[in-house]
Every structure is written in structure tokens, then in C-alpha cells.
């Protein structure tokens, strides 16, 4: 374990570490390989649930089903059924019926009510689900669900598409003297852009928390984490971030007035930030994680807009890939963000290497900058000297492999 501020990072923790949760996954035939493509997280009690969704106008059928489940169950869920390999998006009435059929089949398999089941899908857009394979897979899931690390591993593998690695994290903290766990798993490497959830993500906790408090916390945390990443500027039809709380830790219900609320917020934020950065680092074809820190903006919202503009710039991303200390691309992105900026007071640094002061170039060691930009992580600092606003965004470089991967995604 590793101590971090008000919580402890559990290096071996998973989405099943919080009390009451089981997970599992298997291959049902949606993918051409034998890689898992169907998974589930199941809670032994009705869990408080909250969710945020993509803002894309074309929203996949599973999002409608999940929204309906959370609304009709009083923000309580018992299970999440997830498939990869097929997005069930832009599939018309049949796709909607298939999403409801997935919910019904999962409810029967897990012995819960249909409105206690959330549905999520990811993969190729515009193809109908082979429901015979999906239904057969759902029937097999109860046998592979476990509360141990193996079940969580199989679930993580089941939700991946072009991802190269699984993404999971867990923290523990004390609330009213009781141990509380918060864990998360996510998938995402392409069609990632800050505009609500920006991927599939699942957070579990055993804390007792009011539904309205969990929804508000999820929205606030998403704005500062998942909404601050970009890989390619595309927001998918299927993006969803879902949180479930079993309440089995037995603490006094968490609200903003609770004395341990800030500790819980810190732990929850760490989980979401870790997953967001893991998605950015695993961007399709990426070779480097890029972080943009903006300070001195007129407000935090303004800083977020500027940071997202810089991190989303194809020219900035290309410069990082080429290890080119081209600060001109950075300041150009700052200037087109549509936010108040004093064109005479901008400072830019690449890591600890200043390249611009008061919007004027300064001499720097090109070899030192080259060596820094060839590292695994590149941090760009932008100080506007225009206020107190600050924000951080994460992304990745733009490589030849990104084009190769997406040129043949469907085939």
C-alpha cells in the first residue's frame, strides 16, 4: 500500500475490493479473437447509483436503457452488464430492443429486477448485436462471478477494444473510523474527447452515501478529470461513467456536511484522475502521456478551456511526437481558445525548461529540450498572469500508429 494524503492507494485493489461486489467476464463471440467481450459487475445489495453520459447527439441504445433503470429504481442498481466489440449504436428500434433484452437476460441470470440493471456497450457502430451469442454469454456469467481479483481481471479484459492495457485503481480511507474502499475500472483509447464521460468507466465503493450527493460528486469530479482528457477530439456515441455504492461499510451517510466528506472526495477524485490519465496514456498509437498545466487564467473555467485547447491541438501533439520544442504551436493554441489572455504576459515551460517569458522567446538548450520531449511523460506549463484560475488536462502525442489503427478499425 502507498499513503497519499487522506487515503491509501491499494496496489492490488480492484472493483471487487469494496464490500458487496463481484465481477467476471468471458468470451461470447462478439470479437473475432478469443479475448473476453462480455462482463458484469454485480452487487449483493441494491447499490446507490449515479451516472454521466456522452453529449453526442447520437446516443447508443444502452444509454437510454441505463438512464431508465436508474430513474425507475430510485437510483439503485444491482448489476452492470457490459459488452465490447459491438457498440449497439445507430441500430434503430432493433438495437433498442436488443439493449432491453440484454437488461432482461441479465436480470434473470443474476436474480434481480430489470430496472436494477445497467447496460453498456462499446465497439463498432452501426451493427446489430448477435443476440443468440449475447444471451448465451449472459447465462454463463453467474458461474464466473467472483469477489476476488480473478473476477475483476476478467471483467477488465472484457471491456477493452483497442486498449493495450487494462485500467483499474483502488484506494482506502477511514470514514467515522470505518474502512471505506473506492475502486474503478475503465476502458478507452480512441474516440476520446472532453465532453462528459468520454469512455466507459465504472466506480465502486462500499461507503454509505446519499444518492444526490453521489450524483453531484460524480458530476463535479468528471468535470475535473475525465472531461479534461483528449486523445483525438472525437466524442463517442457510447460514453458512460457509472458509480455504485453498496453502503456496506456502515458509516454515517456521506454528504457535504459530513466531517469526512473532504477525505472521501479526495479519494474519489484520485480514482477518477488515475483512470482518466490511464486512458490518455493508452491513446491509440500513443508513445507519450502529455499533461498541460494552465495557471493565471481569469477563472478555473477559462483555464480548463485553454488547457483542453492546447492538449487537443494536433500540431502540439505532433510536435511532442517529434520531440520538437516548438512553443509556437502551444501559444497559438492558447490564443485561439476563445478565452481572455493578455498577449504580453504568457510564460511557457516544457517541464522545468522555460521557452517563453512575457510572450517572448528566451534562449534554451535545444538538446536538453529534445531529451525531455523524448521521455515517457511531457508536461507543458502555461502561466497567463491574468488571474487566479488554474486547470490541468491530459492527452497523448499523435503518431503514425493512430492512423494505422483507425484506418482499419471496422475491418
UniProtKB/TrEMBL annotation:
Record pathway: Amino-acid biosynthesis; L-arginine biosynthesis; N(2)-acetyl-L-ornithine from L-glutamate: step 1/4; Amino-acid biosynthesis; L-arginine biosynthesis; L-ornithine and N-acetyl-L-glutamate from L-glutamate and N(2)-acetyl-L-ornithine (cyclic): step 1/1
UniProt-recorded name of the protein: Arginine biosynthesis bifunctional protein ArgJ
Description of how the protein assembles with itself and partners: Heterotetramer of two alpha and two beta chains.
InterPro entries per UniProt: Arg_biosynth_ArgJ, ArgJ-like_dom_sf, ArgJ_beta_C
Reaction(s) catalysed (UniProt annotation): L-glutamate + acetyl-CoA = N-acetyl-L-glutamate + CoA + H(+); N(2)-acetyl-L-ornithine + L-glutamate = N-acetyl-L-glutamate + L-ornithine
Annotated catalytic residues: 198
Binding site for substrate: 161, 187, 198, 284, 406, 411
One BP annotation, GO: ornithine biosynthetic process
Top-level EC class as recorded in UniProt: transferase
Gene Ontology annotations for the cellular component aspect, listed alphabetically: cytoplasm
Residues with site note (Involved in the stabilization of negative charge on the oxyanion by the formation of the oxyanion hole): 122-123
